[in-house]
Amino acid sequence: RDITERKLAEERLLEANQRFDLAAESAGFGVWDWDIVANTLVWDDRMYALYGVRREDFSGAYAVWESAVNPEDRGGAVAALQAAVRGETPFDIEFRVRVSTPYGDEVRHIKANGLVLRDAQGQAQRMIGINYDISERKKIEQLKTEFVSTVSHELRTPLTSIRGSLGLLEGGVAGELPAAAKSLINIAANNCERLVALINDILDMEKIASGRMSFALETRPLLPLVEQAVEANRGFAVQHQVRLEIVSPLADATARIDPDRFLQVLANLLSNAAKFSPPGATVGVSLLRSGPRLRIEVVDHGPGIPDEFRARIFEKFSQADGSTTRAKGGSGLGLSISRALVERMGGEIGFSSVAGEGSCFWFELPEVVLELATVPRAAMAAVVPGEAPRVLVCEDDPDIAQLLATLLMQAGYRVDRAPSAAAARRMLAAHAYAAMTLDIGLPDENGMDFLGGLRASEAGFDLPVVIVSGSADPATPALGGALAIADWLGKPIDAPRLVAAVTRAVHRRAAQRPRILHVEDDADLARIVAAQFGGLAEIVEAPTLSTAKDALSQGIFDVVILDVGLPDGPGLDLLPVIQGLVHPPQVVVFSASDPEASLERRQAVVASLVKSRTSNERLVQLVRELTQHAFEDETQPASAKTGREIDDER
C-alpha cells in the first residue's frame, strides 16, 4: 500500500509538472532555476531558444546570463536581481539581449520575473523564475509612438490654421457677419477647440506612458499662477453660468514646479468643476498651507462623485456614465493626466465628495521657503534723461566683476558691484537700475532662486537681467520665459555680446515698429498670424531655412517666430546662426511638435509653444510682450501702462 501511495503521488507530481510545462510553453515562457549558493543556472528548452544558446554550449554558470544582457541594461538588471535576493523588492524587470539567429543578429526585449526561496534562517538559497519575449509588444508600442507623432504633426498645423481663421472671422476681419453666420462660426470654433483639446490629451497620455513628458522645474510663487488659472478659465465658467472665486489666497506660498504643467492641472480641475456645477453656483479655489506642503483645493457644488466610480476616477478614459460624457463633453483623460503631472512635481492629488452636495479636488506640493527680495518701486524707475543708465553687476569673483564693470563703463554706463545676493538686494533697494548682470553661483544663494524672488515681487519683475555664468545647469530655465532673462552669456566673457545684450535691454528702439521674422512653411498659417498683428509690426515671412538665413543676413529683427519642421531642414538649425549675430533677436519656437533640443539650443529660445496648445492670439500677445516698448509707442504712451498690468497679461 505504501508503494501504491508513493506511485500515485509521483504520478500526480508528474502530471502537475507536465501541466506547468505545457502552460509555460503555450505562453512562451522560459523557466529558469538559479542555485544562489552554488551560483549555477538550470534552463528549460524555451530559455535556450530565447537566448539563442545551444544546450551543449551552456555551462550553467550565472555569468553566462549576465554576459548575454545588453551592456546598457546589464547594470540595472543585475541590481534588480541582487535587490530581490536581499529581500528589498520583487524581481520584475525588462532588459534586452542580443541573439544570434540563422538570419543574423537580432535584439530581443525580455520580461523577467522571479521568486526567491529561503531557508529557515531567511537566507536566500534558490531563485526560480520565468523569461518571456516582449519584442512584438515593443514593436507595437513603437508603431503607436510613430502614429501619435504623425498625428501631432499632421493635425496640429491645419487645426491651428482653422482655429486662427475662425477667430479672425469672429473678430470681424471680413466685415460684419449675419446673425446666422455668426452662430455657425461659433459652433465651428467651439468644436474646433474640443478637437484640439482631445488631441492634446491623447498626446499627453502617450508622452506620460513613454516617459517623454518633459518638465522645466522652477521655484515659483503659486498665488499668481492660481490667479492666472482662474482668469484663464473664467470665460469657460461663464458659458456654464458658473462663477470662479479665490476664497482663500496665500500670498507667500512658493513651490518648485513646472508653471505650464501646474496651470494644466488647475485648468483640468476648474473646467471639471464648472461643467458639473449647477447654473448660478460658485466654484471656490483655495491656496492653503498643510504642514510642510501647499494645498490647492477646487470646490464645486455639483452632484458629487458616485460611490461606484470613486475607485477608478483617476484611471484613463474614466467617466461616471455615458450620458455624462455626452452632456458635459470630455475625453476622460484629464484627471489621469493631472495625477501624473502632480506626481512628477513631487506632489499628491486626491478628492472628497458628498453625493448631492458637491466635490473637493485637491493637490499638494512640497513648499519651498525663500527669503524673497523686496524692492521698492522707486528703485525700478526709468532711466533719468541726460544721465548714464545705471547697471548692477552681481558677481562674487572680484576679477570678473572688475572686468564686467570696466567693459560696461567704457560703453557709457554707470556701474555698481554686488558680491552676493544679500548685497544685491540692498543695492536694488537703494538705487534705480536700468539693467543687471547676474552670476548663477553666488556664495549665499543660488542665482536662479534670487531671480525667482526678484520676479515674484511687484517691483522687480521687469528689471532686465543678463545672466553671466561659467557653467550651464540643465535645471535652469530657457531665456525669457517666466524669469524673463534678457540673455545668457558664458565665461570667458564675449565683450561685444555683453555690451550688446545690456544695450538692447536698456535702449529698445521705441520709435520703430518691431521687425518680426516668421519662419513658417504653411502659407495659410503665416498669413493668419500676419493678419492678427495688423499694422503693429513689420512681418517678414520665410518659408524655408535658406530664405530665413538670407533674411537674417540682410536685416535686423526683434523677434524670430520659428517652426521646427521646414522643407529644407530642421528649424532649430537656425539657432546657431541667430546666436552668432551681433544683435541676436529673441526666438519663439511655434511648432506642431514639442522640440527636444539640446541644452545649448534651449537656452537660445525665449519660449517654446505648441501650435495646437497655443492660440494665435496668445502667440501675438507673447511677441508683443517681448517687444513691449515698441508696441506701446504704437498704441499708447509707455507711461500709460503700469508694470503690474503687463505682468497680469503675462
SSE layout and pairing:
Layout: H1 2-27, E1 29-35, E2 40-43, H2 45-51, H3 62-68, H4 71-85, E3 91-101, E4 104-118, E5 124-133, H5 135-170, H6 179-210, E6 218-221, H7 223-239, E7 243-248, E8 254-257, H8 259-275, E9 282-290, E10 293-299, H9 322-328, H10 334-344, E11 348-354, E12 358-366, E13 390-394, H11 398-410, E14 414-418, H12 421-430, E15 435-438, H13 447-456, E16 465-469, E17 485-490, H14 495-506, E18 515-519, H15 523-533, E19 538-542, H16 545-554, E20 559-562, E21 565-566, E22 569-570, H17 575-579, E23 586-591, H18 599-602, E24 607-610, H19 616-626, H20 628-635, H21 643-649
Structure characterization notes:
- The chain has 650 residues and is α/β, with parallel strands linked by helices.
- 33% of the residues are buried.
- The protein is built from 21 helices and 24 strands.
- The model is unreliable at 322-326, 371-385, 472-482, 508-512 and 629-650 (pLDDT under 50).
- The protein has five domains: 23-133, PAS domain (Beta-Lactamase), CATH 3.30.450; 145-210; 218-366, 2-Layer Sandwich (Heat Shock Protein 90), CATH 3.30.565.10; 377-506, Response regulator (Rossmann fold, 3-Layer(aba) Sandwich); 515-649, Rossmann fold (3-Layer(aba) Sandwich).
- It starts with a helix and ends with a helix.
- 42% of the residues lie in helices and 22% in strands.
Average residue-wise pLDDT: 78
Termini separation (Å)?
Answer: 90 Å
Low-pLDDT runs: 322-326, 371-385, 472-482, 508-512, 629-650
CATH architecture of the largest domain: 2-Layer Sandwich
